[in-house]
Write a structure and sequence with these properties.
The structure holds two protein chains of two kinds. By secondary structure, chain A is of the alpha/beta class. Chain A has helices spanning 9-18, 23-36, 48-63, 106-113, 164-171, 188-194, 228-238, 282-297, 310-328, 346-357, 360-372, 378-399, 425-429, 436-440, 470-484, and strands spanning 43-46, 75-79, 117-122, 177-182, 197-200, 220-225, 268-272, 301-305, 405-409, 445-452, 458-464. Chain A has a domain at 4-264: Alpha-Beta Complex (Amidase signature (AS) enzymes). Chain A has 15 helices and eleven strands. An eleven-stranded mixed β-sheet of chain A has the order 1-3-2-4-6-5-10-11-9-7-8, with helices on both faces. By secondary structure, chain B is mainly alpha-helical. Chain B has a domain at 5-40. Chain B has three helices and two strands, in the order αααββ. Chain B has a two-stranded antiparallel ribbon with strand order 1-2. Chain B is flat, with a radius of gyration of 23 Å. The chains are: A alpha/beta, B mainly alpha. At the A-B interface, helix 9, helix 10, helix 11 and helix 12 of A face helix 1 and helix 2 of B.
Chain lengths: 490, 95
């Protein structure tokens, strides 16, 4: 039998149901694997006692014939952006030193209600601001993959970000699945860099309640998992209508796993001309073409489409997201929770606390946000960006007249070396060039591993669907997954 | 619209982030680099485009105006850097 930690969520669930092993054995296997893989720095806080208690409770439910469903007994890693009651929740920031929430986020509560087991809290870019997991106060997470040749051979690589700890943990088999959040690509890009599946649901599908806010009009929770089926199982448990989130959408949660029929005959797949960008490496272009061929071979109809404002999504994002962040992060004042650094008076206490508590990238974005919202600049920057955002959403709306899903690459490169792009924010921001447009339009999108780069690193393909089109998205992703037959492991 | 160090100082004050004098000029360069890059948005014709206010196509929901929690003082204070007698303790604000 394969190691317990090699099983997918679906396989582990089946094994638990058949009594081949217990949730406690599965959890203990992960806890040992976590200990052996600490050099990756994927976990900020391991919660082994809690995991064992939850696993024992799962075993008791199953023994009594009351198993809660396919997630019962499945050990998960939780991004440190989710508030978990009594367990340190830091958002990767110094300013949340010692913060132990007295409440549980809706998404994690939904997972616990479904019987899942919490292994611990995983590393991330500070306040989810980054694409390499290098802005965390707790140090960088390493990608479990290594380049087999070329300039990066033997070097430590980044796992992507901001959900870098989540992606590294799932790829390294130290979690069966993980929660992530995606504001501009923070689930999909690390998913691609670590060779796993990352799904960003439609804005409003998963509750934001208890998820530490970065950019509220963009933030959306979603799963990182090893297969499309596992992503469907996790999403089904995570999603809900939640009156505590004013933008939560009151729609029933379908059986996402049931959508994986493997049949995409007649599905219209859009290929946007504007995603063919100068400087995209030929291996990315080639993989994209393979994806087109795979879907066509499975009976889909390929349609050339145009999303004219694609190149403006990223600069518009870098106005909207920092603006919202500057407002959301105003709450970190050193008075009610987290770090306090005393100054001469109240204002200086605020200023010292925030100077010491926030890392450089967070400060930079808060200041950009403060500037674009300030008197005299609001119209020129913020309102302009919100108008461009409407144009981007309109592009997609027009595209849905001629296609049902859109296929693009996930990232313009494979994982890069730790230390690269560190001093050039715009080069770092360009990681999200293919993922940000769907975020700006609030659309569901998924990245799945589809091949290896010339130096042996995973590359992702990216599908985008209309709002609440998760079932179509997952069905198409499942077909791509079968066709790609990606079996490589770090 | 390049930022000078005085403007950076003003923004830092508005954002309540202390910035050392020596760091103002390099920070101005960094912010100008980003602002220069986003200025490509000026190329986009946005005449007639409404600024997006809600990404989800939904009507704003209103909740019933009823008390849904309360009596959680100790939980609210649980993470306070300083607290006394059921209150947050903050630096003196009135002379």
């Amino acid at each position: 039998m394969a190691a317990l930690t090699d099983l997918t969520i679906a396989q582990a669930g089946a094994g638990l149901d058949k009594g081949e092993f217990t949730a406690r054995e599965l959890t203990d296997a992960y806890l040992s694997a976590m200990e052996a893989a600490r050099s990756l720095n994927a976990y900020i806080g391991e919660t082994p006692e809690r995991a064992q208690t939850m696993a024992d409770a799962s075993d008791a439910r199953r023994a009594a014939g009351n198993a809660a469903g396919p997630m019962d007994g499945i050990p998960l890693a939780i991004k440190d952006l989710f508030c978990t009651e009594g367990a340190l929740s830091t958002a990767g920031s110094h300013i949340l030193d010692g913060f132990r929430p007295t409440y549980e986020s809706t998404v994690t509560q939904n997972l616990w209600d479904a019987g899942a087991v919490m292994l611990g809290k995983v590393n991330m870019d500070e306040f989810a601001m980054g694409s390499a997991n290098i802005t965390s106060h707790y140090g960088p997470t390493l990608n479990p993959w290594k380049a087999s040749s070329g300039d990066n051979a033997g070097k430590d690589l980044v796992p992507g970000g901001s959900s870098g700890g989540s992606a590294a943990a799932v790829a390294a088999r130290i979690a069966a699945g993980a929660t992530g959040t995606d504001t501009g690509g923070s689930i999909r890009q690390p998913g691609a860099f670590c060779g796993i599946v990352g799904l960003k649901p439609t804005y409003g599908r998963c509750s934001r309640w208890g998820v530490i806010a970065f950019a509220s009009s963009l933030d959306q929770a979603g799963p990182l998992a090893r297969t499309v089926e596992d992503s469907a199982l996790m999403l089904e448990a995570m999603a809900s209508f939640d009156p505590k989130d004013s933008t939560s959408v009151d729609l029933p949660v379908p059986s996402y796993a049931a959508a994986l029929t493997g049949d995409i005959r007649g599905l219209r797949v859009g290929v946007p001309a504007e995603y063919r960008m100068d400087g995209t490496p030929p291996e990315i272009e080639a993989l994209w073409q393979k994806g087109v061929d795979w879907l066509r071979d499975a009976g889909a109809e390929i349609v050339d489409i145009s999303l004219p404002h694609t190149k403006y999504a990223l600069p518009a994002y870098y106005i909207v997201a920092p603006a919202e962040a500057s407002s959301n992060l105003a709450r970190y004042d050193g008075m009610r929770y987290g770090l306090r650094v005393d100054g001469e008076d109240l204002t200086e206490t605020y200023e010292r606390t925030r100077a010491e508590g926030f890392g450089h990238e967070v400060k930079r974005r808060v200041m950009i946000g403060t500037y674009v919202l300030s008197a005299g600049y609001y119209d020129a920057y913020y309102l302009k960006a919100q108008r461009v955002r409407t144009r981007i959403a309109d592009d997609f709306r027009a595209a849905w007249d001629s296609c049902d899903v859109i296929l693009t690459p996930t990232t313009p490169s494979s994982a890069f070396a730790l230390g690269e792009k560190q001093d050039d924010p715009i080069a770092m921001y360009l990681n999200d060039i293919f993922t940000v447009p769907a975020s700006m339009a609030g659309l569901p999108a998924i990245s799945m591993p589809a091949g290896l780069s010339d130096d042996g690193l995973p590359l992702g393909l990216h599908l985008i669907a209309p709002a609440f089109g998760e079932e179509t998205l997952l069905r198409a992703a499942g077909v791509l997954e079968s066709a790609a037959g990606f079996k490589a492991q770090p | 619209m390049a930022l000078d160090t005085d403007t950076v100082k003003r923004i830092a004050r508005l954002a309540r982030i202390h910035v050392d004098e020596a760091d103002l000029a390099p920070l101005a360069d960094e912010l100008n680099n980003i602002l220069g890059w986003v200025e490509q948005l000026d190329e986009v014709d946005t005449d007639g485009a409404e600024p997006m206010t809600s990404v989800a196509e939904m009507v704003q929901r209103l909740r019933v105006d009823a008390v849904t929690d309360g009596d959680v003082r100790d939980r609210v204070l649980a993470n306070a850097p300083m607290e006394a007698d059921g209150f947050f303790v903050v630096p003196k604000v009135i002379e």
